[in-house]
Model the fold of this input.
Amino acid sequence: MNRELLKGHSELIILAALAQRPMHGYSLSEHIKSQVPETFKFGVGMIYPLLHRLEQKNLIRGVWQGPGGMRRRVYSLTARGKKALAAKRDEWQTFQSMMTNVAIPTR
Amino acid sequence: MNRELLKGHSELIILAALAQRPMHGYSLSEHIKSQVPETFKFGVGMIYPLLHRLEQKNLIRGVWQGPGGMRRRVYSLTARGKKALAAKRDEWQTFQSMMTNVAIPTR
DNA sequence: TCTCAATATATCGCATAACGATATATGAAC
DNA sequence: GTTCATATATCGTTATGCGATATATTGAGA
Done:
C-alpha cells in the first residue's frame, strides 16, 4: 500500500480523535490502530512529532499528568483546534468528492 | 489549502484521465485544471515528472508525435497501467471510507 | 526477586513527492 | 517581427510519513 496516501490527512485524524475525548500519545496510537486498517495505522514514532506540531500550532494543548505514576501528557482540543477541525472536515469533503469524481467514472 | 493533501493520490488522477483518452502532458494539465477545484490543480511543472515516473514504472507509454509540428509526447495506459488503475481505485475507496469513518462522526 | 512485556515519550534520519520557479523552443496570430 | 499559447524539462525547497532506536516506568508472573 502506498505510504504517501496519508500525507496531509493525519492531522485531521488526530484532531477528530481528540474531539471525542482527551488522550495521551500512547492511547491515541492504540485508539487509531483499533479503528483504521492495518495498512494505515500510525507507528508510535509518528504520533509524538504530530502532537508537538499541533500543539505548536495551538490546535491542541497537553498537560502533564501527575505527580504519581508514569508521566503522560494528555492532550485536548483548544478553541482554535475545534475551528481547525471543522475546517479540515470541510477540506476533506471537498477533496474526497473531487477525487471520487475524477478517479471513479460515473456509469 | 493544505498542499500535502494530494500526496500519493496524483498518480491515480493521471491514470484515470489517460484511461479516458491518450493525451500529452500539456493537454493533460489543461484537462485536469478544468475538472478539479482551483486549489488542487496541478502546475505544468508537476505533470512531467509524474509522467516520467509513471512511464518508468511501465504504467503508461509515451510516443513522440511527428514528424511535423511541435514535438509532443502522447501517453496512453499500458496493460500494467490498467491493472494499476484498478488497484489504485480500490485503494482510494478503502482510504476514502476509512478517512470518512474516522474523521466525520456519524450522528 | 528477577525478568519480561506493556506502557509511555522522544528524536534521528531517510525517502518521497508536491510545487513553484525557471529555461527553452515552436507555432500562430496580429 | 513581436507577442502569446503551446509544449517539454529540470532544479531546489519544503513537508512529512515512517521505521528505527533510545530511555524510563510499571505490573505480572516465574
In short: DSSP finds four helices and three strands in chain A. Residues 79-103 of chain A form the longest helix (25 residues). The domain at 10-98 of chain A is CATH 1.10.10.10 (Arc Repressor Mutant, subunit A).
